[in-house]
Amino acid sequence: MNAFLRKYQITRTDYYVVAACFAFIALCGTLLYLDLTRRVQASGEQIGTITFKRNTAQRKYTEQVIWEALDNEAPLYNFDSIRTGDLSEAVIVLNDGTKIDVAENSMIVLNLSEDATDIDFAYGSIQAKREAGEGEEVAALNIRSEDKTISIDDQEGDVSLNKGEAEDLDVVVNKGEATVASSSGQSQRIGEDERATVGDSIEVQKILLRPTAPANNQKVFVQTGTVGVRFAWEPVAGNNAVTLQVAGDRGFGSIAATRTVQTNNTTVNLSEGIYYWRLSSRNPQNGQNEFST
Question: Do 232 and 277 fall into the same domain?
């Protein structure tokens, strides 16, 4: 045994070799960490800024494969990809005044040219608004989702888009007009307070229910205890009954409260948490049950 130990006795050179190996591994790990977390210096002209309503968002430059967290009021550049996660909401303001509200779990790509403002909409929910000043001209706004396109040529416009797991794109015109093109090439003009379901074809219907307070698509935050939250909406044609649903998730799989009333408002006691809300009522024109946007 002693002969074996003498034969394989560790020398000072062995210590140096081991230390060098550990130093090399540490150096490689540090370089890898810096490469994964570094912020690429963007080139080109700034096209807008991003701010956060809640939590943060991530950005991926066109030449980058790693997503990075964004600072509040961070500058944005052409071809930036922007995505939000759970409970994250962001507002993008472009240099021409176009405002894009990006809801949680959504992703867009910015693509601007001299002639048009193009937004590639991958998934989630967004709202795009523009208001040109008097005598001011702005480029056309095009929102593309796969092979479907929503275009706003007017100086002022406000559209909301939602795209979930289904192939169809849900479009609501809150103000102005928009031109909708389907995947089959069909094109149709839709006006204010109209909703279009866009797939291979285009189905348009008049919006029956319009929430007013809290604002449409706005989440309700209850920080502590139990709070009475007032929900209100515009009066419904025909004075039909309206059902309010409050849920703990955007898909309304976890219903926290349900109220059916004849009035245009009601109050619901909600405990600590984050809530979504929507309305439903029977459309007197077709007899079908419809939900708010």
Answer: yes
Give CA–CA dist 126/100, Å, rounded: 7
Question: Which of 137, 135, 163 has its CA nearest to residue 150?
Answer: 163
Residue 82: name the closest of 114, 45, 53, 111 by CA: 111
Whole-angstrom distance, CA of residue 82 vs CA of residue 102: 9
pTM for the predicted model, two decimal places: 0.77
Partner residues linked to 261 by β-bridges: 242
Indicate if 227 and 271 belong to the same structural domain: yes
Residues 122, 229, single domain; the answer is: no
- b/e for 213-237, b at 16 or more Cβ within 10 A? ebebbebbeeeeeeeebebebeebe
Q: pLDDT tens digits for 71-117?
A: 999 999 999 999 999 888 899 999 989 999 999 899 999 999 888 89
Last residue of a domain, one of 172, 206, 240: 206
237 neighbors 210 (Cβ within 8 angstroms) = no
Return d(Cα 38, Cα 40) in angstroms, integer. Answer: 6
Q: Give the structural domain span for 160.
A: 46-206
Same-domain status, 177 and 283: no
CA 46 to each of CA 43, 58, 131: distance values in angstroms, whole numbers, following the listed order: 9, 17, 20
Q: How much is the average pLDDT of 40-59?
A: 81
Nearest CA-CA partner of 92 in 104, 79, 110, 105: 110
Residues 80 and 202 in one domain: yes
| Total of domains in the chain | 3
